[in-house]
Amino acid sequence: MSKSLKINGSTILPVHNIRAIRAITDEDRARMAAKYEKPVEEFASKKVSIEFADKSNKTADLTLDDVRAQGVALVNVGNERYVPAANIRSADPFSKEDAAKLKEGGDYTLTQTFRSRVDTTAGTVLSSATPQQIIDRAAKALEAGQGAKSSGVIKTAADAQAAVDAQSAKKGAAPKAPANG
């Protein structure tokens, strides 16, 4: 499991500070071009938008598969938003009462049905998946990212990470081959 993500050739980001990652659509590129009064072609290389804990965003020229190839296991939390699996601390049900409280404040307009509130190291994210689906996806992503097999029951992302760490510790360092073959 990688603790950093290299984007745009040289920028290195700490994964624990990433709240969510989503693919950029042609519509998003058109919006960016209008906002910055530049031709759409200048945004053609931008493939993902990365949201941080402070809710700022950075665009990158890599795809979601490129992110995974760097060792960052991702969990789809719905609406094509992905969260680094290692960042997930817990997932709780999100009720209609919770939605009503958010709407009352006037700061939020909820245009889709959310089933869970996902607590991450970079803040809370609402998800259309159930809490159990989020935890299962996180465990699967962590296992796939490390090639580890769980020996115990995994109920949380922390359990999944502990299983991965235990498996890695069992493997230990690879023995060195003799110099003469």
Question: How would you portray this structure in words?
Answer:
The chain is 31% helix and 27% strand. The chain is of the alpha+beta class. The strands form three sheets. A five-stranded antiparallel β-sheet has the order 5-4-3-7-6. The chain has a three-stranded antiparallel β-sheet with strand order 8-9-10, covered by helices on one side. Helix 4 runs parallel beside helix 5. 26% of the residues are buried.
Structure summary:
This protein is α+β, with helices and mostly antiparallel strands and 181 residues long. The chain contains 5 helices and 10 strands. Residues 147-155 have low confidence and may be disordered.
Looking at this protein, list some descriptive labels:
181 residues, 3-stranded antiparallel β-sheet, 5 helices, 5-stranded antiparallel β-sheet, 10 strands, alpha+beta, 27% strand
List the helices and strands and how they pair.
Layout: E1 4-7, E2 11-14, E3 18-23, H1 26-36, E4 48-52, E5 57-60, H2 64-69, E6 74-78, E7 81-84, E8 88-93, H3 96-104, E9 116-120, E10 123-127, H4 131-146, H5 157-171
Antiparallel strand pairs: 1-2, 3-4, 3-7, 4-5, 6-7, 8-9, 9-10
* Helix percent band: 25-40%
Beta-strand share of residues: 25-35%
Number of strands: 10
Structure class: alpha+beta
Spans of at least 5 consecutive residues whose pLDDT stays below 50 are: 147-155
Round the mean pLDDT to the nearest integer and report it.
83
Question: If strands are numbered along the chain, what order do they take across the biggest sheet?
Answer: 5-4-3-7-6
